[in-house]
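I'd like us to work through together how a protein chain folds, taking it slowly. We need material for that, and I hope you will provide a protein of your own picking. Go ahead whenever you are ready, and we will take it from there:
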Amino acid sequence: MDNIKQIDCLVRIADALRGSVETNNIVPALYIISELRRKFDANQEGLEYLWQHVTDLTYELKLAPVFESKESFFRIYGYLRNDIDFANIDYEMLLALNFRILGKNFVRFGVSDALFQLLSEKVQKLHGRVLIAEGEKFVPYLQKIVNQNNDNFYTITVSKQFEFEVIRNIFAHHSNVKVDLARIYDYEFLNQNFDGIISIPNFGANLMEFERHNFMCRESEFIALENLLLHLSLQGRLIILLPPRISFGVGRIKELRNFIQHSYGIEDISELPEGVLANTNLKTYLYTFTKDFQDEILIKKYKFAEKEQNIVKKFSSELKVSDETFVMLSELEEQGDWNVDKIFTAQDSDWQKYHNSNTKKVFLKDVADVFRGKAITEKDPSGRIGVINISNIQECNIDYDGLDYIDDEERKVSKYLLKEGDLLLPVRGTAIKSAVFHQQPYPCIASANIIVIRPYPRQISATYLKLFFDSDIGKKILKSIQQGATIINISYKDLQYIEIPCLPYDEQMEISEKYNQALAIYQKTIEEAQKQWNSVVTNLQKKLEE
């Protein structure tokens, strides 16, 4: 039975077992039954004998009871007896089933075909001792990765006992594979260095203080990055998938980038489209780090070869390079981050013109307060506090008539109350747009999906700032800090550190006044045209009724 047919068969069985076995126990249950079928003949030994071994296996796997009772096991075993050749189940396919029945998205595998092909190209260049970190994340391609080069010696780490036992079983007859139960987030998790490491660490998990040792950052992906770099041999390469924040994050993340730039080499940075990794809609980046310094760094952007609407089909698409360039390490150091969009933008003529202009530029945080709106849990149409959502922010203004309301005391939301001249920028969405808030007869706040920019008096004009964000160069700068590709996702912390042109305040106000005058004329013209149009249509309709 080929892999696709086998996993489809396993999915059908898993669906049939729902209700009889807890969802997170379906794969362990199938594994235990498969092990019993491989080792014993139920017709000779009897179900009572098998049940004793169920208990032993459950203990070895360090699992809570998988079957509700002995009777439940007998019933399920009998049901599955002739359903599939359990003695020949591919255990890697069985682990892959977890991504389908436990994953947030209903997809076949955790790592897409497209990502595997890209990783495969890179792994072929690794020679010697190779670490596959958290090997369970690479199913169902784990054996394919190992079989690409049988001259390598592979160490596969696994973080959970069940996956450890299964993967150790998979490679039981591979003399060049060792499976270890270890966490890549623990300092000195292995006492060994490697010539090659591939890793897809957990994203965004905040580890406990005592678990973080003395790592620079607290997020799991950055701890893994720092920790794995420490396990590179002199000729080693680390191939690691990371979220966007590594490229432009500030604070401790910036410290980590600086440490890496001065202690390691960056061979290449590849921006990948959404969908190459299951259960996340973020852009992801594939990095190759080395122990050797690299003067020239290859920068790539990938996209799916075929744009398909069906996400399941999309996962089976191939990746192709949509843009490619080189950047010198000195240029990257001067830029201050690893932002791929900024690198390509820096080679754009508009950006070069802006960057080289004599206009004074300042960080947004130096001329304005930047904060997120308030999370709203319960709306109240009769409430007295208006809530501005993304849908209320239009191209040139705010739709105050369509606001939601909450019933709360003003003092409890005082720090979120909007003021005249605040600029509102959606945190997420499909298009970058902003609007200036004007005081209403009732108090208003912004929802948590909106960033509030409150200009300092006589430092920056909100209208001037809106004009900049609406400009081509402003959109490019905002795009450089967004964490999504098709769905915009902007962090207010990252927004604080974008550079904006800061003309003298009087010039800003002159520009803002001209904009507001033109906007008023534009809106009046649209309003009059709409009235005239409605009048014509109404008169024509009346004639039809005569």
Notes: Confidence is low (pLDDT under 50) at residues 104-109, 308-316. The chain is about 40% helix and 20% strand.
